[in-house]
Structure formats: structure tokens, C-alpha cells
Amino acid sequence: xxxxxxxxxxxxxxxxxxxxxxxxxxxxxxxxxxxxxxxxxxxxxxxxxxxxxxxxxxxxxxxxxxxxxxxxxxxxxxxxxxxxxxxxxxxxxxxxxxxxxxxxxxxxxxx
Length: 111
What we know:
Helix content is about 70%, strand content about 15%. It is an alpha+beta fold. It has a two-stranded antiparallel ribbon. Helix 1 (about 20-40) packs across helix 2 (about 50-80). The longest helix is centred in the middle third of the chain and has 31 residues, at about 50-80. The radius of gyration is 17 Å and the shape is flat. The two termini are about 15 Å apart.
């Protein structure tokens, strides 16, 4: 298991990940940083904990919307002869994202 130091809001965090996934973990941290920068630009938060909470809520909202779109696609497909499953690249990416999020959360709890 690789160890990566990610930077969020100027702070470094050591996080474990699968070997070869270091760049992906850095990209996820950059996504969090982008959302935090957007929140700061709006003047909507003060304090790191609040910034992280709002960034997490933004990301959860995006995930919720993505799941709703997927369910709508499934519902539309259920009216056709061939059901659509979250397979292929999208399904694999969603499953990997969920697994990585759980791993990251577990690693942060241990830190």
C-alpha cells in the first residue's frame, strides 16, 4: 500500500492508497481543493472544518444528482426490452469511487 501526502487548504495529510493510485488520489484532493476555493471566493465559510464540511456537502450533492440521473436512466430503460445496468466504464468507475472513498475515510479515522 502506497502512502501519499495530499494538500488540502494548505495542510498536508498522509493517506494510504493502492499502489499505482497515487495520482488519482492527488486528483481527488484537487477536486476538494477546487470546491473549497469556490466556497472561499463566495465568502461562505470561515474555518477549515466548516470549509471541509461545505465541500463535502457539495460533492455529496453532485453524487446524489448523478445517482438520480442513473436511476432515471434505469427507469427509462426498464420500459424498453433491454435494461441498462451500471456496467462498463461508468459502473466500474462508480464502484471504484465508492471503494476509494471508504478506504480514504477509514485511513483518515486511523490518522
